[in-house]
Amino acid sequence: MTTFELTRLLPADHFARALREDVRLGLTADAKWLPPKWFYDKRGSELFEDITRLPEYYPTRAERAILTERAGAVAAATRARTLVELGSGSSEKTRLLLDALSELGTLESYVPVDVSESALREAGEQLALDYPGLSVHGVVSDFTAELGLPRSAPGPRLVIFLGGTLGNLTPAERARFLASLRAELAPGDALLLGTDLVKDPAVLVAAYDDSAGVTAEFNKNVLNVLDRELEATFDPEAFEHVALWDAEREWIEMRLRSTRDQQVAIPGVELTVDFAAGEELRTEISAKFRRERVSEELAAAGFALREWWTDREGRFGLSLAQPA
Ligand code: SAH
Ligand code: AVI
After folding, report:
1. What percent of the chain clears pLDDT 90, i.e. is strictly above it?
2. For the segment 12-49, what is each residue's pLDDT rounded down to a tens digit?
3. Which ligand 1 atom is nearest residue 119's CA?
4. What distance in Å separates the CA atoms of residue 310 and residue 324, rounded to the nearest whole number?
5. Is pLDDT at 1 greater than 70 in this prediction?
């Protein structure tokens, strides 16, 4: 039997309220910023998928290479009955784990959690067709607000957080996120975490400033979201895409730089925002890790690192951790 169901975990007005709050806070700050979760409307989710196929954007290929090699070991170590994925997007790489767990015969349900309802629906409906017998239960949620782990789902549960999305949270947000995830897990459950690794800055910057301009379009998409949701008057053409490497904090920062002095109306929050020529709005951080940082952050949240795998070129890390 094929089943796909979708649950919206947060109150109906949650996202509209949260967007307004973030815009009020971030666009009235001295150094303007917005959280990266607002990239991912339908268009943003499609643009991210385009990014994963760019020659410069190596993380998806590197993580897929690790999963291809290690999915069997993950399945054997966890014997998961429930697979929960945070920030699941297209769930493409997840198929490697679904295959390994199905082969082992333990898997009963897959719970993809994402802010992007369009991505969840598209991926979930196809997976339910491709994996007969698997219950696929999509959850629309914001994992920084409510994780979305199904409390009644049969254990052992394997929670996966792939793609390096942990790096899109600030260090304080990561600590909070990992601690709340740990609090939801029981002995025998596990976390599989993908983290992009520190490497040559030229390689990193190229991955976030591709020659075809897809990442620039993805970055500017957040302005389209504000125009649509808050009736704002951003002209994406009046901003340029910036990607830079912060060597001290070891993260990539994406920004939008105003090409001229301009005033933008945002009626949805009753704001008018001034941008000076050259002024930058930070739209994303993408932290890059070393093994020690990953194991320290996991330990601080109450996890023990059981396995650490990288691709052959050492570009990306995959950690298997369990409640300590
Ligand atoms: N895991 C996939 C997708 C990564 S893109 C991969 O490895 O390719 C990041 C995904 O996380 C997107 O699908 C986006 O919609 C989702 N996302 C970003 N912030 C989120 C949040 N705060 N809560 C839930 N999902 C989020
Ligand atoms: C989803 N996340 C891990 C991506 C990243 O690499 O930080 C988002 C992204 N931003 C620009 N390109 C891709």
Report:
1. 95
2. 899 999 999 999 999 999 999 999 999 999 999 999 99
3. 13
4. 22
5. no
- Cα separation, 41 vs 157, in Å, equals 29
Distance CA 317, CA 291 (A): 8
Supply the DSSP string of 12-52, one letter for each residue. Answer: TTHHHHHHHHHHHHHHSSSS-B--GGGG-SHHHHHHHHHHH
In the beta sheet, which residues pair with residue 234? none
Best residue among 114, 221, 222, 225 to mutate for probing ligand 1's pocket (most ligand atoms within 8 Å of CB) is 114
Among the bound ligands, the one closest to the CA of 19: 1
Decide: 46 in ligand 1 pocket, CB within 6 A.
no
Closest residue by Cα to atom 9, ligand 2, is: 48
Q: Which residue is associated with the tokens 């795998």?
A: 309
Ligand 1, atom nearest to 143 Cα? 23
pLDDT (tens digit, 9 = 90+) per residue, 100-148? 999 999 999 999 999 999 999 999 999 999 999 999 999 999 999 988 7
| pLDDT given at position 2 | 61
Q: How far apart are CA 222 and CA 206, in angstroms?
A: 21
212 CA to centre of own chain: 22
